[in-house]
Amino acid sequence: MNIKNTIFLALTTIFLISCTKTKKEEVAVLKYVEEPHSYAQPNEAVITHLNLDIDVDFDKEIISGTATYDIENNNSDHIILDAKNLVIQKVQADGKDTEFSLGAFDESLGQPLKIIIKKDTKKITVFYETTDKTEAVQWLNPQQTADKKHPFLFTQGQAILTRTWIPIQDSPQIRITYDATVRVPKELMAVMSAENPKVKSENGEYHFKMAQKIPPYLMALAVGDIAYKAVSDRTGVYAENSMVDAVQEEFSEMEKMVVEAEKLYGKYAWDQFDVIVLPPSFPFGGMENPRLTFATPTLIAGDKSLTSVIAHELAHSWSGNLVTNTTWDDFWLNEGFTVYFENRIMEALYGKDRANMLGLIARQDLDEEVEGFKATPEMTHLKLNLKGKNPDDGMNSIAYDKGFLFLKTLEELVGREKFDVFLKEYFQSNAFSTMTTEKFIDILNTNLLEKSNVTFNTEEWVYNSGVPSNAFEIKSDKFEKVKQTIADIIKNNKVDVGVTKDWTTQEWVYFIRNFPEDITPTQMAIIDNAFDLSNSTNSHKAMVWYEQSIKHNYRGNNVDKKIEEFLTTVGRRWYVSTLYTAYAEADKVDEGLAIYKKARQNYHSVTVNTIDKTLGYKE
Ligand code: BES
Ligand code: ZN
């Protein structure tokens, strides 16, 4: 071989090697996008499976143990996890101690945990414990539970709180399977977002397995003196003993919901669908932890009237848990789709009237939210820009209700039949992966709009503020009648009780929320005396009545005392935030603060964070 040939061969080889490298890098770069709310660099090294082994110590209020990860290393000498307010004791790579360091602390993101690994490292183990600053976990004393005998604990991971109880790559675009061993006091039962026990173990040790890949924000744990009751072969409820029968009865239609949901968008992918009803400080109506939705006890109204929240969390088994928003800026892909799907499940079970009422309530929420963001209209975009913000502060009902209305408008445009085919295909072909807004728009254009030969102002809906003028107008005959009832009462200063005889909770809520701006305390008293709203046992009705009482300065029938009782027991953020906001807007911050000072210690950190801002509270 002459020198020319040798050089040629050498150059070709170098060229080929560099090509392969570039190609490999390209693939890696394409796999995960830049994400502003996680320090993890999954393109360098990523976790694929977690084995969690922890002790739950109620005396010290500490969770401690190990998190062992299988990792996929793309040639890196380190891997970065997210951690916040955790004590990291030591770290091992394939069973041997390795170097690690915690970077600078950020108030919302926490710290990067950098762990030194070798190119061929397969597993890392982090030895750690939680602290009294761990935000995901709420430790409850017996007084804060229904049965008042034993302590209770639950976690809340979404949006970026899982890193406060497990060191982890806490980005929604990462997916892991997990196993866990959890040791708790033997009078208590532990349950997770995984395959769960149905009875207590003898020694307080529990083993869990989540065989499907989930994003880290869906890691969840609850520990308490709870019992299980089945609703069907694959659905059921957990709750404290004194409540479990009522909960089983309230949610007796869970199986029907799953059946209807499957008819719409394909097989339920998580085998079991259970709900645990937590103590009243749980900060959400519901949280869609896979296989085990976490729920507030305020849903137990006695007449199944608030079960749309269960339909909502079930719907997340497709939108969110199966097809997950890639970043929190794409949050509307989780929530907007879920509100739409929730509405369809409710229609399938209870008919169009109920669905239209829920749809119109969403529309009213949306209009109020848009009005509230007049000064910052970019907050009303579907696609958000939460960089530099705590995602939890940027998440509001726009994602839910504008997202819902966008999909409802599309459904009306192309027809339900085509829309359902499109959605079913969308969930099937993107199952167990993540979705960006941009990719969704591409899929929508290719698979629905072009095929149906229609044009649609998708960009305006997604990237502009407010509600586009082509929004579908939801109508409800029932609500028209409610409006008439309000007008009659205000005109005559008297109430015809008979008209309201068959009203559902939705009609009551609409009635109460739509009092005229200038309603007087005397008119409120006439209404209260007729319907005893200050003593309502339906949490949603009560909440909107309290809101109006604060707003319109109504103080009859001991309503102030009722409001205080409500705010010091219930921690559901949407409810309490509505009421504290009403105090703030009615120039009664001091009244709100006086209650908040007593209530604050009962709330979970996500509620505390919100209300501190609402009332300008400083410790
Ligand atoms: N996933 C949400 C709760 C959530 C949102 C937690 C953002 C953390 C950050 C859940 O599915 C939800 O939307 N719950 C609603 C009920 C629903 C019917 C609107 C709630 O809690 O009110
Ligand atoms: Zn939701």
What is the helix content?
40-55%
The proportion of residues in beta strands is 15-25%
What is the number of helical segments per DSSP (H or I, 4+ residues)? 19
The tally of structural domains comes to 4
What is the CATH architecture assignment of the largest domain?
Answer: Sandwich
Kindly name the structural category.
Answer: alpha+beta
Rg, rounded, reads: 26 Å
Strand order of the largest sheet: 5-4-8-2-1-11-13
Distance between the termini: 81 Å
Q: Which outline best applies?
A: globular
* CATH-defined topology of the largest domain: Immunoglobulin-like
What's the pLDDT, averaged over the residues?
95
CATH class of the largest domain: Mainly Beta
Main β-sheet description: 7 strands, mixed
User: Could you name the CATH homologous superfamily of the largest domain?
Assistant: tricorn interacting facor f3 domain
Low confidence ranges: 1-28
Ligand catalogue = ligand BES, zinc ion
Number of strands: 21
InterPro entries: Aminopeptidase_N-like_N, Aminopeptidase_N-like_N_sf, ARM-type_fold, LTA4H_cat, M1_LTA-4_hydro/amino_C_sf, M1_LTA4H, Peptidase_M1, Peptidase_M1_C
Protein name: Aminopeptidase N
Keywords: Aminopeptidase, Cytoplasm, Hydrolase, Metal-binding, Metalloprotease, Protease, Zinc
Main location: cytoplasm
